[in-house]
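Predict the holo structure. Ligand: cytidine-5'-monophosphate.
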Amino acid sequence: MTAASLAGLRILVSAGPTYEDIDPARFLGNRSSGKMGFAIAAEAAQRGAEVVLVAGPVHLPDPANVRRVNVRSAAQMHAAVLAGLPCDVYIGAAAVADFTPRSCSPGKIKKQPGQDTLVLELVQTRDILAEVAAHPQRPRLVVGFAAETDNVAGYARGKLQRKQLDLICANQVGVAGCGFESDDNALLVIDAHTERALGPAPKGALAGQLLDLIAERLL
Ligand code: C5P
């Protein structure tokens, strides 16, 4: 089977972690490598789509024929993604921080003599995916990711409904050979009616299979 062409479609992808600054030297981050989102962006561009990739801090080269917008924090990713609308498809593959420090200390936080604990106050970030799905310029297809350690399908299905998504790609983290830093992955792609298991496979091959499912729904 030849890969479905995506020519004429505008696809917005977010990828990688976000870094939430605590002070000039420290931040809260996560283990997302960005590889899955970059593979999706590369494959979509190769199939003729016009692709914008909003990338958190990762060490990955620019995929060919993709417009890359680099960001650091969840707030910056929120602004860059919303600036990328309108589009036909939004794929939120980034691991966006759910919480960020209420304020970033202007100077490096010093430990005080006898200090055993440090309390950081965190506030919730805005949910980019849910906002895109509820936006007046809602893309035709909104696709989320859910990294879970347990009850993978159950939690993902809850997010599909709560965030009003068309598709959610669930993957188990914390198992060897899959997920965050790995070159391979396995996804359970869930919509309102069906569940499809993709992989385990290299992230590039998986990106192609996911884009086939997306194309089926659009073309
Ligand atoms: O709720 P949870 O963070 O597990 O959902 C994961 C999905 O939601 C991913 O697609 C992620 O990109 C998106 N997300 C977001 N903005 C947030 C938190 C998560 O877009 N603040």
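The pocket of cytidine-5'-monophosphate is lined by residues 74, 92, 94, 96, 98, 125-129, 144-146, 159 (CB under 6 Å). The chain has a mean pLDDT of 94.
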